[in-house]
Amino acid sequence: MAASIFAAVPRAPPVAVFKLTADFREDGDSRKVNLGVGAYRTDEGQPWVLPVVKKVEQMIANDNSLNHEYLPILGLPEFRANASRIALGDDSPAIKENRVGSVQSLGGTGALRIGAEFLRRWYNGNNNTATPVYVSAPSWENHNSVFMDAGFKDIRTYHYWDAAKRGLDLQGLLNDMESAPESSIFILHACAHNPTGTDPTPEQWKQIAAVMKRRSLFPFFDSAYQGFASGSLDKDAWAVRYFVSEGFELFCAQSFSKNFGLYNERVGNLTVVGKDADNVQRVLSQMEKIVRTTWSNPPSQGARIVATTLSSPQLFDEWKGNVKTMADRVLLMRSELRSRLEALGTPGTWNHITEQIGMFSFTGLNPKQVEYMIKEKHIYLMASGRINMCGLTTKNLDYVAKSIHEAVTKIQ
Ligand SMILES: Cc1ncc(COP(=O)(O)O)c(C=O)c1O
Fold first, then answer.
1. Among 176, 199, 205, 258, which one carries the catalytic annotation?
2. Which pTM value belongs to this model?
3. How far is residue 361's CA from residue 228's CA, in Å, rounded to a whole number?
4. Aminotransferase class I/classII large domain: which residues (predicted)?
5. What DSSP string runs through 88-151?
6. Are strands 33-34 and 386-388 parallel, antiparallel or unpaired?
7. Which of 311, 318, 323, 390 has the greatest number of C-beta atoms within 10 Å?
8. Does 222 participate in catalysis according to the annotation?
9. 22 CB burial (10 A radius; 0-12, 13-18, 19+)
10. Cα distances (Å, whole numbers) of residue 380 to 49, 305, 369
């Protein structure tokens, strides 16, 4: 037999976060803890179907008016409108002026991909592959790959994390914006920056917006954790809304994976804010072409759940309560972990654990210490030292804190 036509295909490396979870599953040690996964867990370490989601799923199952016909290519209209509304706010001038459009997407990743494809095809000249795309250092690793796969050739990083002070490197970030070529694209985390858990303050966002406006840089917000940072949807959307109020044209990729716990339903939205209705409609007409050749038509279940919840005042309140339950548990785990590390006298400072926000914390553990945690303690975390606070429970906190203490004191 002739050799396979695929004989020369090299094996791609596994996706780190999924590999970590697979390793965790195979680990037979009863003390094992998974701090790697990017999903909410209850205090019992279990996935959580939000009560409001369960209720709405039942409503959908009992609604005989629904069917499985194709949706419009751009998605379920009531989902798109409501999703953009919670990003931009009820009284958004851009919505009132009819210059907001949206595309239902397969998760936040789908929204980033459709936005990236559109920008490569139509922004800053046709088939524009040379426009620099700036991603924070560090960032969610998929930002880089999504823009690369969309055809962008010049992906750069901008300063974000100051490891020494365990906080935002605002000056580095502003310097990078000052020296970026005009029209460069900047991917900005709307809130709860992944992986550092460190966001600019409103005052710092104002400085960032001022430089971006003066230098004509394009803001592409990634909003994957609205509600998770502060427990308040409005607070967590402050930056996006401020940029809109400053007159920016922008994109905002929204994920409902985390704040609705709908990870595998793939429900996301790309909000487009333009100068006027005509611009937005032309942009959407091109995005429709991109969707047609990408997934052709979006799935309805997740979009129906979100649309039904967001369009009923009572369900909306219930959902906000569910989001707050998740955000509060994260806050509690932060303070509990910090107080344990401080009580143990673990070398270093641990205030960053409670100062950081959202699902993740950048512990400051180095790769060798991470390896020790995994190999010796069966505690799984990303090589960057990022931990998912939801992996902590009242039952494993002591063990995790003692293990971090050991890792930091034994391994330099
Ligand atoms: C920063 C960031 N953006 C986007 C996403 C994409 O989420 P989704 O699963 O909805 O595609 C994630 C998920 O982990 C994320 O952390």
1. 258
2. 0.95
3. 13
4. 31-404
5. H-TT-HHHHTT-EEEEEESHHHHHHHHHHHHHHHHTTSTT---S-EEEEES--THHHHHHHHTT
6. unpaired
7. 390
8. yes
9. exposed
10. 24, 33, 11
Q: How big is the CA angle at 245 (ends 203 and 206), to the nearest 5 degrees?
A: 15
Distance of CA 115 to the CA centre of its chain: 15
- pLDDT, tens digit, for every residue of 14-62? 888 889 999 999 999 999 999 998 899 999 999 999 999 999 999 999 9
pLDDT range class, residue 280, cuts 50, 70, 90:
very high
Copy the structure tokens of residue 360. Answer: 């993740």
Give the pLDDT confidence score for residue 375 in this predicted structure: 96
Ligand 1 probe mutation, 255, 258, 260, 306, most atoms within 8 A of CB: 255
Has 90 been annotated as catalytic? no
Chain segment 284-298, per-residue pLDDT in tens: 999 999 999 999 999
The DSSP result for 159-227, as a single string, is E-EETTTTEE-HHHHHHHHHHSPTT-EEEEESSS-TTT-----HHHHHHHHHHHHHTTPEEEEEES-TT
Kindly state the tokens that stand for 159: 């300063």
Looking at residue 76, its amino acid is L
Query: Would you call the peptide bond into 77 cis, given omega within 30 degrees of 0 as the criterion?
Result: no
Which atom of ligand 1 is nearest the CA belonging to 38? 14
Rounded Cα distance, 361 and 385, in Å: 8
